Amino acid sequence: MMNIVCLDLEGVLVPEIWIAFAEESGIPELKKTTRDEPDYDKLMNWRLGILKEHGLGIRQIQETIAKIDPIPGAKEFLDALREQTQVIIISDTFEQFATPLMKKLGWPTIFCNTLEVGEDGTITGFRMRVEQSKLSTVKALQSVGFETIASGDSYNDLGMIRASKAGFLFKSPENIRQDNPDLPAFDTYDELLAAITKAL
């Protein structure tokens, strides 16, 4: 059976982009993430409203992203994992945010979404690739003969984690761990690498 590992991006391999931007822009409301708000549409529409209110667009966010580095050890973890098996990053982020980070991670494969950006750089909307993109992607991979192993940190990762033959929480906040006591939870890349290797 062919295995494929599906990983979340933010909070797992790179810091949360919106938290970094909230700190950079001095807008604390933007710190809210999928760890706090399970409804991604609601969260994104709320974020776009705040950006509009403050006159901020894609350029300012990309300037912040240019300064973000992967979590220490993330690239080494990915490299070690990719020596053993196929890996796809499945993220609810957007191509316009993810590309510079993929460069720093050695260009792994990422499935994510797209922002709609006006000519003046205003973010006017967003296009999700598919409903429940993480769970839908895992199910699609399974339908073409892959067994999936998944890991993530937030509410929107639980679907793909639970639908996979093995699934792990990684660097998850306490509330998500408490709500899902049956899921193994790890905080270091060495632990996660060992758990995935064992599941392969």
Overall helicity: 40-55%
- Domain module count: 2
- Gross morphology is globular
Radius of gyration (CA) equals 17 Å
β-sheet strand percentage: 15-25%
CATH architecture of the largest domain, by name, is: 3-Layer(aba) Sandwich
Briefly note the structural class of the backbone.
alpha/beta
Give a quick set of tags describing it.
about 200 residues; alpha/beta; Rossmann fold; thrh gene product, domain 2; seven-stranded mixed sheet; 9 helices; 7 strands; about 20% strand; globular
Walk me through the structure.
The protein is an alpha/beta fold and about 200 residues long. The protein folds into two domains: about 1-15 and about 70-200, Rossmann fold (3-Layer(aba) Sandwich); about 20-65, thrh gene product, domain 2 (Alpha-Beta Complex). Helices cover about 45% and strands about 20% of the residues. The protein has nine helices and seven strands, in the order E-H-H-H-H-E-H-E-E-H-E-H-E-H-E-H. The chain has helices at about 15-25, 40-55, 60-65, 75-85, 95-105, 135-145, 160-165, 175-180, 190-200; strands spanning about 1-5, 85-95, 110-115, 125, 145-150, 165-170, 185. Strands 4-3-2-1-5-6-7 form a seven-stranded mixed beta sheet, sandwiched between helices. Helix 3 (about 60-65) packs parallel to helix 5 (about 95-105) and helix 4 (about 75-85) packs parallel to helix 9. The chain is globular, with a radius of gyration of 17 Å. The N and C termini lie close together (about 10 Å).
